[in-house]
Amino acid sequence: MEPHSAGSGSLLGPGTTLRRLMGLWQPRGRAARLLNRLLAGMTLACIAFLVLCVALKLIADPPEELEQIALCSLVATIGVGFIIRAVLFMVQGGTLRQTLRLLEDTRLQFCNGDNNELMRRRYQTLSNNIYYYCQMVAVPAVTAWAVCPLLSRIVTKTDQEQVEAQWQLPVPVWLPADIYASPTFEFLYVVQSFSVLVATESCLSIDIFFVHMMLMVAAELEVLNDNLSAMEHINLQMLTTEGEGFISGYKRKDRQLSLITSGQSLGEQTLTEKAAHEWLHQQLVKNVLHHQAILRSVSLLQSAMNVSIFSLLFVNMANLCSSLFVASILLQKEGNVGKALNALFTIPAQMYETTIYCIYGHIMTDQSERLMYSAFSCGWANNDARFKSSLIIFMKVAARPIVITVGKTCTLSKQMLLQRLVVLKTACPTAATSMEHPSGDSDWLVRPGATLRRLMGLWRPRGRAARLLNRLLAGMTLACIAILVLCVALKLIADPPEELEQIALCSLVATIGVGFFVKVSMDPRQQQQAEIFV
């Protein structure tokens, strides 16, 4: 069943039409389901075709070069990962619909005014922006896979007899027939390019759905934080003497209190002190029920993401290392520019895919960690013992942050992202040192990126005039990095953002900039040791 309210469209998130066109989201109705199965079969067939191409290449005509084998393995693992995620997403359709219905009922049941709706709309806008950003990363990667083989033929110079070097397909393939003859080559090129597009967009639509669901849970947690801290506005405070005026929305008349609310109409109903305590306790119970509904939503979402996202993180980490290895070797050989660019263009997409899960999963965790402080900031001091004991129980439960754990070991957080980056950083020198240089001279130790380092003043040349120019270039490089740090520092100090994600983004840019500045400043001092090593 689909969600049944008018607001269910926003809960489905961006990319809904794309998921339905690819058969990843099952609609209602028998005829619609038959069409959906056909579309799902076409999507899986496109992804399986890419895996079949490289599998035939590896089995029937295995390449001699290690980097070609790594490239075929890279395509195969990415394709298999896409198939697993697409199948699991369709199999988990019932769980995902149940999560949507639960979130929808939570929205309808726990809504205390326009402020809550503004928070939810803000997260919806953020989800839409993430979808556009993902498309901005995915479309260039797909375009590169389709165009780079043609670009390689233009920029490389090979012998006329080397047909395979001149004509390259987006994905390596072996067929009994001559794949470079027309129109076989053109047909394979178009089919492979279309299959790469379908595979990428199907993966993207699944990613944005899970990220959207995490953001919707984060929105509910922020609403709950706001409602918890707002209980102080309806708190009975300082009941001491006659003549005290309006305090926290209540007016004292002898021992009678009339409630003055905004957004809720209770008329001129008067409450005794005991009844007012009871009403406030009911507000706490409502917030506890809201928290329990959020916990059930997270549990359902985690069960749907468990295997799928764990396989994604594992495959992405292996593919990142493989892409670096393949690109580092192919860039050193003539006639392989297109294949090297294919490997390079997959790196930003895979990094961005891993990053969005970790960053926006951490946003949800951040909001859950605020619950205890929001509960403590409410007006509990002058309430009865029943309210205080209930609040203590809630705070003990809320002290445990809400996290999504996939594969029973990986939590979607910034800490896990940092661990992945450390592993990737460790793999980079390994790929770099594995390069083969046909020239055989000793200058290959400093050759990769040597021109770029000299243009940025990072490698001190010999000669007084050259050193003066080098210092000028180094100063310009440091100035550019310092400007970035200064920009975000001024933003944080003079006009600090209200949104947590904006503060995190500014802090991320500042820390990266400071790290770059320190690293660039230290590199010239280590040049002498590098020259001794060379």
Can you characterise this structure?
With 534 residues, the chain is mainly alpha-helical. It folds into 2 domains: 9-366 and 385-436, no CATH class; 450-534. Helix content is 70%, strand content 3%. The strands form 2 sheets. The protein has a 4-stranded antiparallel beta sheet. A two-stranded antiparallel sheet has the order 5-6. α3 packs across α8. The radius of gyration is 30 Å and the shape is flat. The N and C termini lie far apart (67 Å). The model is unreliable at 1-7, 157-165, 233-271, 430-447 and 523-534 (pLDDT under 50).
Structural class: mainly alpha
Strand content: under 5%
Question: Which consecutive residue ranges, at least 5 long each, have pLDDT under 50?
Answer: 1-7, 157-165, 233-271, 430-447, 523-534
Shape: flat
- Number of separate structural domains: 2
Distance linking N and C termini: 67 Å
Q: Helical content, roughly?
A: over 70%
Q: What order do the strands of the largest sheet run in, or round the barrel if closed? A: 1-2-3-4
**Largest sheet geometry:** 4 strands, antiparallel
Average pLDDT number: 75
